[in-house]
Amino acid sequence: MKRRIFLNKAAAAIATAAFPALLFTWPGSAAAQARNHRVEISGFKFTPDRLEVSVGDTITWINRDIAPHTATASDASWDTGELVRDAEASIAVTAGMETSYFCAFHPMMKAQLSVTAPDQ
Ligand SMILES: [Cu+2]
Fold first, then answer.
1. Are residues 82 and 61 located together in one domain of the fold?
2. 8-state DSSP, 117
3. 3-state SS of 43-83?
């Protein structure tokens, strides 16, 4: 009886000792850090209108207005296309991508991305 209890405790000690090592090595992988960001379009505004993203992340825009909108790069290098009400579209964040964008139908609607390189 006493021996079994001891073994269980030893197994638990090994598990807790091994886990922090896993967590410690994991952040080195860029894939583990990729995130999805959501930008809501409502009231003819992008929310948030300033978004910090990393290379490898994705950004999803969803239109909550009755009017159609787009998220279109200022230099037209990327574009969600027309988003009707409740439609959404995603763009992958790439190094050097254009960071300012607007709505092609309502050019006064503007927003900004801040792109950082993934951790080495
Ligand atoms: Cu619009």
1. yes
2. P
3. CCEEECCEEEEECCCEEEEEECCCCCECCEECCCCCECCCE
The two beta strands, 72-73 and 88-92, are unpaired
What is the residue range of 103's domain? 34-116
Q: Are residues 20 and 38 in the same domain?
A: no
Q: What is the pTM of this model?
A: 0.72
- pLDDT tens per residue, range 63-90: 999 999 999 999 999 999 999 999 999 9
Query: What is the spatial distance between Cα 33 and Cα 19, in angstroms, rounded to a whole number?
Result: 18
The neighbourhood of ligand 1, an ion, using CB within 5 A, equals 69, 103, 105-106
Looking at the structure of the chain, the number of domains it has is: 2
For residues 68 and 95, membership in a common domain is answered with yes
Whole-number Å distance, alpha carbon 115 to ligand 1 midpoint, is 23
- Give the CATH number of the domain where residue 71 resides: 2.60.40.420
CA of residue 120 to ligand 1 center, whole Å: 37
